[in-house]
Inverse folding.
């Protein structure tokens, strides 16, 4: 199975556990930066990778199925949007909230 696939509930459900003591990452073909980590015990956790201020950042979003694919995709888009704005503009959190309400 390829490491890059279109995330759906069915496809995430079908991912088998990684080798014992190891982790396997799969990347969403539709949402850049979104990945799901599968552990040896079969736990599936969504992560987003983004660059902030020239440094890579990995953020844990939540575990599947408590967090749906659609929720993970939406949160990834929000976080990547904020990482694009923040390093280049000196705006307050209140202004971020206003921008997000308009964007989403």
């Amino acid at each position: 199975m390829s490491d890059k696939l279109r995330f759906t509930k069915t496809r995430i459900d079908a991912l088998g556990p990684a080798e014992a003591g190891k982790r396997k990452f799969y990347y969403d073909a539709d949402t850049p930066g979104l990945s799901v980590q599968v552990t040896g015990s079969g736990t599936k956790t969504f992560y987003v990778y983004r660059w902030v201020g020239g440094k890579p950042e990995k953020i844990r979003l939540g575990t599947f199925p408590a967090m749906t694919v659609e929720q993970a995709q939406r949160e990834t888009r929000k976080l990547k949007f904020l990482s694009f704005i923040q390093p280049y503009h000196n705006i307050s959190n209140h202004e971020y909230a206003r921008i997000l309400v308009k964007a989403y």
In short: The chain has a mean pLDDT of 84. Strands lie at 4-5, 23-28, 34-39, 44-52, 55-64. The longest helix spans residues 69-85. The domain at 4-103 is CATH 3.30.160.390 (Double Stranded RNA Binding Domain).
